[in-house]
Design goal:
The chain is α+β, with helices and mostly antiparallel strands and about 70 residues long. It has one domain (about 1-65): Alpha-Beta Plaits (2-Layer Sandwich). The protein has 2 helices and 4 strands. It has helices at about 15-25, 50-60; strands spanning about 1-10, 30-35, 40-45, 60-65. The chain has a 4-stranded antiparallel sheet with strand order 2-3-1-4, with helices on one face. A hairpin with a 4-residue loop joins strand 2 (about 30-35) and strand 3 (about 40-45). The longest helix has 14 residues, at about 15-25. The protein is globular and about 25 Å long. About 20% of the residues are buried.
Amino acid sequence: MSKTYIVEGMSCGGCASSVEQAIKAVAQQASVDVKLEGGLVTVSGVEDDAMVQQAVEDAGFTYAGVAQ
């Protein structure tokens, strides 16, 4: 199962890489796909939204919830 999250503050490939690495640090099995346009991060293999939120915030970005 995958979910897409809204992450604010990403503006470059380095930002995308930071978010991806932060999520994988807390969930090694996760598959992470970052789309800078729209600030969307799709994560597969993680059921815990709070874990994703904490990883995003620890990486220095703003977690804005689950995309509809």
